[in-house]
Amino acid sequence: MQETQENPKQKKDEDAVCLRREIGLLPAVSFIIGTVVGSGIFIAPKGVLMNSGSVGLSLLVWALCGVLSLFGALCYAELGTTFTKSGGHYTYLLETLGPLPAFLRLWVEFLFIRPAVASYVSLAFGRYVVEPFFAPCVAPEGLIKLVGILGVTFVVAVNCWSVNMASRTQVTLTFVKMFALVLIIVPGVIALFKDFLFLCYSLQEGQRTSRMLSHQCLGFSIRFYLNFITEEVINPNRNIPLAIICSMVTVTIFYVLVNVAYYTMMTPGELLMSDAVAVTFANRALQGVASAIPILVALSCLGALNGGFFGSPRMLFVGAREGHWPPIFSMIHIRRRTPLPAVLLLYPLVVFMLISGEIYQLINFASFSRWFFIALATLGMLIHRYRFPLLPRPFKVPLIIAVTFTVVCFFIVGLSLYSDPWNTGRSCALTLTGVPVYYLTVRRFHLPHRWRHFFSKFLERLSANAVPSEMFPLWETVE
Predict the structure, then answer these.
(1) N or C end: fewer C-beta atoms under 10 angstroms in the chain?
(2) Structural domains of the chain in order of their starting residue, each with its CATH number
(3) What does DSSP say about strands 331-333 and 475-477: parallel, antiparallel, or unpaired?
(4) Terminal C-alpha separation, the chain
(5) What tens digit of pLDDT does each residue of 261-309 get?
(6) CA Rg, the chain, in Å?
(7) What is the DSSP string of 213-269?
(8) The pTM is what?
């Protein structure tokens, strides 16, 4: 009798249109590692060495960035278990500092941060796929962009099809990129044991310059996109902290070991002369499989791209559900259980930015906005902890770690304002353009009566020309 009473309820739960909890611990770890490890570790060591001035200091920068990332990961583990809704930064700012900072985070994410980052990664994917066929000649830029667009199209199709397919793709691509890192680390470790004195000499080589390290700070990306999909993680109170800590510790160890491997096989001068450090390393240490390195790096870029398209649309989905974005983006497909409108919104923005060629310029000042809102999110966590000390928190980061990370984030923001005022100033200006948009769309009742009347008439005309809802039988809004 009890089974017959429970079956209708279970059937009703299964038929409910909502995002399902389908992300286990392994996909969660793969999701974080897959978004953190892109093309940077295969290229960025050159820039870090160039700005730090010595091998020893560059290794120290990588290690300190890893520690900073771990501190941030612990903060976001507390945020993710305290606020169980998806949406990441948007949700945390909404719950701690109010709707305006949350809307601004949503605004800059889809105005230039996510399209710029996705365009940069897709361009790197296209470059690593195309250039081996044209070496030693220069590959056509148009073909590189075309292959990049194909990569974006593939990722969008996977994320529109099903959550399971997207998570399985992420797990597969994460294992591929970890295999690529192991392929670099193993010969480096062998060479290290063979010639330990050479490494000792290299660690002391070069002058320690007094250049600003703001480029490394801005370029080191803390990607906690698992917090964007909290509602889809199985047992989030356990899996979110465990996945974040395990993945960030793993990435930090692997990054430092990869850099040590680079310096065991190349001198600092040779590394600075290389535009693709991993390819140069493979030509020297892995001659038999050197041709496979560009393919592995391309697949690594594809994994980072897939992770970004999986996580960021959930922020837009939650923002639309809260009334901060058009309602169509709070809809999910009845059969696929994917927030398809939110995923599709990113596609034309990424393609347009990739074709326009303004990617690198946007990346430079998009980093400022990302760090600024990360600092605001952890500051909001501290304020919320002070205001509601008795609120249950399944995971609680030590106060000294949370304060240290918040202070360092604001220091990085201030350092970027000092070292690159032009790009950071434009980033501030673009962020502030969301303020009038917020008051004209979300908080119209705060406007003068004449303004409200004008925008009401304008929205009525748009609604009159809108497509009737009966034409969308496969969509349903999630409340």
Answers:
(1) N
(2) 18-466+473-477 (1.20.1740.10)
(3) antiparallel
(4) 33
(5) 887 777 777 777 766 677 777 777 777 777 787 888 888 888 888 888 8
(6) 23
(7) -HHHHHHS----GGGGGGGGBSSHHHHHHHHHHHHHHHHHHHHHHHHHHHHHHS-HH
(8) 0.76
